What does this fold into?
Amino acid sequence: GGKQSTITNFFRRV
Amino acid sequence: MLELRLLQGGLLKKVLEAMRELVTDANFDCSRSGCSLQAMDSSHVALVALLLRSDGFDHFRCDRNRSMGMNLNHVAKLLRCAGNDDIVTLKADDDGDTVTFMFESPKQDKIADFEMKLMDIQSEHLGIPEAEYQAIVKMPSQEFARICRDLSTIGDTVVISVTKEGVKFSTKGDIGSANIVCRQNTTVDKPEESTVIEMKDPVSLTFALRYLISFTKATPLSNTVTVSMSSDLPMVVEYKIADMGYIRYYLAPKIDE
It folds into this structure.
């Protein structure tokens, strides 16, 4: 099923 | 002083039920423009973003920006003490460490107030970029919930593919496999029952089904749901909250190793 990515792989902390 | 009054208290109950499975503790950020919340689940795979605009409230006063940390399960439990038709008012002093929920029966013959301690929650705020999505599917929210539930009887992950033929949900598991295809359908009498597919490019992504099932706890908030996907972004599952705002769920995809 592939490797689970996370939200922080895509969105940066502000 | 913070004072938010909502004639439809039942709406707030639905909002809490839609978030509490995914997120335990979160900050409610209140300003003159409204109330918002952004939080990730403990594994950082999903993010929930809530917006309730001030003009959607029957009374909204927020003298100073406030970030109020709450345990969502505690708030949900507390709101279960309110009737669906009760008027709900939230009150907090500018420097206090509590929030008061007041429930008034529609006939105003019963008034209850519950005071809850606020929590200090260190949460990181993420910048969510504006994006043009490759595919946007709008469909009945109950249909989407049904598809997620049905596929979970077979597998743990779902591949969602949008082509000009329609949107396909596929899963595989130990006992077999399943595919559900929904075609664009705008000929039905009621717009909330239609399925509308806007596609710039075909897109196919894989997601863990259990998060999608958590998102469908928002089904009572809206007749329709919008699913937006691009190959290099988390998917967005949005439920509009009538006249007030939205609850959006972002879900990170599974990627090939």
